[in-house]
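ok here's Fibronectin type-III domain-containing protein:
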Amino acid sequence: MNLKYNLLSLVFLIFLSSCNSDSSEVQPPQNVIEDPVSALLVFPENNTECNEGTVVNETQSKVTFLWNASEHTDSYELVLTNKETVEISNFDLIDNSYEITIERGTSYEWYVISKSQESQETAKSETYQFFNAAPGIVNHVPFSAEAITPENNSIFTAISGNVTLKWEATDIDNDIKDYEVFFGVNKEELENKGVQSVSNLEVDVVSGTTYYWRIKTNDEKNNTSTSELFSFTIN
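and the structure:
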């Protein structure tokens, strides 16, 4: 009888211990903070002439900037740059569209930053550039060239001590004539590598060195545009 009683007591203690162990492992649910997602820009479209909007006068028009609402986002920051004056304007917004009065006959670039009240992280959209139309404009300045490879601020692997710079540029008139390439290790004094009829150039590089480059785009009407300063480091 005592043996039976002891066995039953042992089974009960094991069961009780198991229950206590399981209950101690139950974790309370935790709130998951979702970071905002980058917005998809809609209008003005990239590398186009903007003919829409409301004309204010000979020099200005109102254009509505539009992007798709992004997930986990409470507000947006629209960043607009006049590419001729390099003036930057910032607009803090709740909605995913905003009307801005801008200069006619002028090139701009813009992007949107998505923000959340729950997260300290932000998400930046792609950067679009466009030309705001003006009366009497019959030819246009080329859009600034964009780096394809090496990507800007990237770490890159050279092949036999060489890297091929590749870029892309567009012009509403489709009359790009050639490019001038500026390249070097001193971003204040880049070497002019000459005129290129194609959008690529092979350059010599050294491991562990950071290089800087920019592209000047020329069209048939002698209009020019200069890209931002790109950089990459050879690993």
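+1. The first strand starts at residue 40 and ends at 43.
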